[in-house]
Write a structure and sequence with these properties.
Layout: H1 24-28, E1 55-62, E2 69-76, E3 82-89, H2 116-131, E4 135-141, H3 154-157, H4 165-190, E5 192-194, E6 199-210, H5 230-233, E7 238-241, H6 276-281, H7 286-293, E8 307-308, H8 316-320, H9 342-346, E9 349-353, E10 361-374, H10 376-379, H11 383-405
Parallel strand pairs: 3-4, 3-6, 6-10, 7-8
Antiparallel strand pairs: 1-2, 2-4, 5-6, 7-10, 9-10
Helix pairs in contact: 2-11, 7-11
Length: about 400
């Protein structure tokens, strides 16, 4: 088994990449633009020593005839105390009930994204404790990925299951219904805004994942993946997914701001004074906000947690084809970029009909959505590193939300 406290790894110091006259975000989102609002000391709702806001369980799906909670929705006891954030943890569960067959089929992934549930809970609590202005919503799939993959369309999510198929199917339905319920709560409090022909909710959906960095390989060929001691804890980068492919979408300059069917953040990029290029990899992007705060996390290697795409690392494709970062660059890059999956796709819209298979139909108002793929050096770094990184995520997320949606309505 992988160690919970990986050995120290020597890696190159992070530098702007790729090198050249100017990267695309340097050209379109210069450093002279409004500086990162890191929100280190954001105004609290009241001057209190201890915050009285708490996260509670709002709804659960329990397996019939058991006490097993398979899916859970958590959030504020009073929706008036909501934050404009919905977090989902689809792959962090550990339950392996015998009353549900294990998924089976060619090419499917059944390993869990270890510690992503814990980081999601730490992120939620850090937002509460640091700012005391609201409570985010958190949707948890407690089933192990071998029993349900909640980030896939239903057929693949439950592939190979015979015994327990009704329970697994209902768990999948509840997971996505609870996400939509939380989005409705956010809309009810924070409302909507209309940009260039696009109406969307003033909120953010954050889908939490983790990746190993060796492309799922367990044999000697795993060394063809990302560097940074691949066989122990994989690649160092946090991968931010906006449903943009690393090639050609992220190699275009600037990123297409108006392509309504490509990528997420359709609502955010339609708003005045916003562009897709700067939202995704400008100095105020989520990736760059996290990068700027990582010096607050002690005990990690230089590159651990650095984000791509970001102002500093604008092109995942460039990283994957550079021998500094990828062992297999000469062969075209085995270093896979996770651009965003099923959850980000369907919860970018408010009206989702889950009964339409294999792909639910999408309509209605937009809801800004992104996926984070956390590296093993963060997830397996131990309790302190996970907690400190969650604090960094909390600061970055709150700053991003306030810049995008304005001050919290108290």
């Amino acid at each position: 088994p992988a160690p919970t406290s990986p050995p120290t790894v020597t890696t190159p110091s992070p530098t702007p990449f790729p090198t050249g006259p100017q990267t695309c975000p340097e050209q379109y989102c210069p450093a002279s633009s409004p500086s990162r609002k890191l929100q280190a000391t954001s105004p609290r709702r009241r001057d209190v020593v201890q915050c009285d806001l708490t996260m509670v369980t709002l709804a659960t799906y329990t397996a019939p005839g058991t006490s097993d909670v398979l899916i859970e929705l958590k959030g504020p006891a009073d929706s008036a105390d909501a934050l404009d954030l919905v977090i989902a943890a689809p792959h962090g569960g550990g339950l392996k009930p015998t009353y549900i067959d294990s998924r089976s089929g060619s090419g499917i992934v059944t390993s869990k994204d270890s510690y992503t549930l814990e980081v999601s809970e730490l992120l939620a609590q850090s937002l509460i404790d640091t700012y005391c202005v609201g409570v985010p919503y958190l949707i948890i799939n407690h089933l192990h990925r071998s029993k349900l993959d909640a980030n896939r369309e239903l057929e693949e999510a439950t592939i190979g299951i015979v015994n327990g198929i009704a329970t697994a199917t209902e768990a999948w339905n509840k997971f996505h219904t609870y996400i939509n319920d939380a989005q409705v709560f956010v809309r009810d409090k924070f409302g909507t805004s209309t940009g260039s022909g696009v109406t969307g909710v003033n909120g953010l959906f954050f889908d939490m994942h983790g990746y190993i960095g060796n492309n799922g390989k367990s044999d000697a060929s795993a060394t063809t993946g990302w560097k940074d001691d691949v066989n122990i804890h994989g690649a160092p980068f946090t991968q931010w997914g906006y449903r943009l492919s690393d090639d050609p979408s992220l190699t275009s300059c600037p990123i297409d701001n108006l392509g309504g069917t490509i990528g997420s953040f359709t609502h955010a990029r339609s708003l005045p004074n916003q562009s897709y290029e700067c939202l995704v990899r400008g100095p105020n992007s989520m990736g760059s906000r996290v990068n700027a705060l990582l010096s607050n996390v002690a005990g990690i290697s230089d590159l651990c947690g650095q984000g791509t795409p970001s102002f500093e690392y604008p092109s995942p494709n460039a990283l994957a084809t550079d021998a500094i970062y990828c062992n297999d660059a000469a062969a075209g890059g085995e270093c896979h970029y996770y651009s965003g999956g099923f959850d980000v796709k369907i919860h970018e819209r408010m009206d989702v009909d889950l009964s339409v298979l294999p792909q639910p139909t999408l309509s209605g108002e937009h809801f800004n959505a992104l996926q984070a793929e956390l590296p093993r050096c963060i997830r397996f770094g131990g309790d302190t590193i996970r907690s400190d990184f969650a604090g960094v995520l909390a600061q970055a997320t709150m700053g991003f939300l306030r810049d995008l949606n304005g001050p919290m309505p108290y």
